[in-house]
Write a sequence for this structure.
């Protein structure tokens, strides 16, 4: 390839033999990794060990792409757990489709700016098509819309900021006094990101104990609304709790609305994708009444890190709360065009909804429904197996794709030693957890490549 005006200053950007070689190396590695079916689970390495093996790689004149990539492939990557491994069953796993992972490369290669319509209209159009598809699936009106943000934590924060803004404007317009402290009502089992949002916003959380079984209902929420009145600007319903995959009773919470004024936010970061399956759809009744919802494509919608779909019933409420104003931005903000930056606490953004768009466009929505249904079926099957085993106890009947269980007589140290051994032997990544002070462990199942036999094999190690 011809060298174009290459100087020391343009060496890293010009198209040259050197840059061509670098791109080939990286694409070749990516191809091998994406299409590999035997990438090991891998495990973390201690910092001194990494220092010994990796040393310093940032030097005056570089070490070259070949050495840097070899360092990544043979030292750094093996010190990162393979989160898309079928036996990664901890926390909430990730399991991106091949199309979504591959297209993530395209998003980078295309240098798309996803913040404004002016700069990224094509990308924004495609992202919005996905958001509209999700909104329709959740029963929200056609006018609903939003933005893909980095993760559920930022999605929850952005939605709650819009909720408070809305409450403040409503009370001010009515000439009413503003509360001394704003409050969010949510389940005591809500995700920690709700408390994190409250800290950032300097508002209070009113945690409500859910009913036996973990579901928060309107009856649980009512006393909190009676006690705290207009200070409550939002009620958060969880559509798939992280620890158990329990879906709150959204319909009865929404039904409190004629009597009390609040913004209903549904945190479906993990679980709301379950609505795609006819096996679980009924559990989410009432989500159609939400003022805002989130769902993370990097969880059960099979997209790579990092993406959260944040959808507002009335996107204007999100825009009013979040649009940044500055002289240099006036050209973007003083138009009616849809600029994703305006709908959350961010400005510059990657068009992170595109990998999901490409994968959905490639395979079609039915493939997603089938993949989600497969997790639900496998969860029920392994839950029945656990229940039937002597010395095992299901902590709760699973609703979605998380199954939590105890081994009789095991204390925290037993679970920790067992979990470390599983990872050491590269068999599985299953971490200890607990509920109500009792130690347990859990399988979070959302990778369609996970099999019943693999899970049974893990249970067999709990001797
Ligand atoms: C219910 C729920 N909400 C919010 C979050 C936070 O999402 P993220 O990790 O993408 O910030 C999680 C993460 O697991 C979650 O399960």
């Amino acid at each position: 390839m011809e060298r174009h005006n290459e100087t020391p200053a343009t060496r890293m950007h010009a198209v040259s033999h050197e840059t061509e070689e670098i791109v080939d190396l990286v694409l070749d590695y990516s191809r091998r990794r994406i299409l590999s079916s035997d990438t090991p689970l891998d495990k973390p390495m201690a910092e001194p060990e990494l220092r010994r093996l990796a040393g310093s790689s940032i030097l005056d004149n570089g070490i070259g792409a070949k050495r840097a990539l070899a360092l990544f492939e043979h030292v750094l990557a093996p010190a990162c757990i393979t989160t898309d491994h079928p036996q990664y069953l901890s926390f909430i796993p990730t399991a991106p489709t091949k199309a979504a992972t591959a297209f993530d490369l395209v998003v980078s290669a295309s240098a798309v700016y996803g913040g404004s319509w002016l700069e990224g209209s094509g990308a924004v159009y495609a992202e919005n098509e996905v958001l509209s598809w999700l909104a329709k699936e959740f029963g929200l009106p056609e006018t609903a819309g939003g933005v893909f943000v980095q993760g559920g934590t930022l999605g929850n924060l952005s939605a709650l900021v819009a909720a408070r803004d809305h409450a403040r404007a409503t009370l001010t317009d009515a000439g009413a006094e503003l509360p001394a402290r704003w409050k969010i009502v949510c389940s005591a089992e809500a995700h920690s990101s709700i408390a994190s949002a409250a800290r950032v916003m300097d508002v209070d959380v009113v945690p409500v104990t859910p009913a036996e079984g973990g579901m928060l209902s309107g009856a649980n929420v009512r006393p909190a609304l009676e006690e705290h009145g207009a200070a409550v600007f939002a009620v958060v319903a969880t559509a798939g709790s992280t620890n158990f995959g329990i879906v709150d009773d959204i319909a009865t919470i929404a039904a409190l609305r004629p009597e009390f004024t609040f913004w209903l936010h549904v945190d479906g970061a993990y679980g709301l994708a379950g609505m795609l399956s006819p096996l679980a759809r009924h559990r989410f009744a009432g989500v159609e009444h939400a003022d805002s919802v989130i769902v993370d494509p990097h969880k059960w919608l099979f997209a790579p890190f990092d993406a959260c779909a944040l959808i507002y019933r009335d996107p204007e409420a999100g825009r009013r709360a979040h649009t940044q104003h500055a002289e240099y931005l006036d050209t973007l903000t003083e138009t009616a065009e849809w600029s994703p930056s305006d709908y959350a606490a961010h400005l510059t953004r990657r068009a992170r909804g595109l990998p999901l768009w490409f994968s959905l466009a490639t395979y079609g929505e039915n493939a997603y429904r089938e993949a989600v249904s497969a997790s639900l079926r496998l969860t029920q099957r392994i839950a029945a197996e656990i229940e039937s085993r002597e010395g095992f106890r299901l902590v709760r009947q699973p609703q979605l794709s998380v199954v939590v269980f105890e081994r009789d007589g095991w204390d925290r140290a037993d679970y920790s030693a067992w979990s470390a051994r599983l990872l050491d032997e590269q068999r599985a990544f299953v971490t200890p957890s607990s509920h109500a002070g009792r130690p347990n462990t859990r399988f979070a199942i959302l990778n369609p490549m996970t099999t019943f036999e693999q899970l049974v094999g893990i249970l067999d190690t709990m001797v």
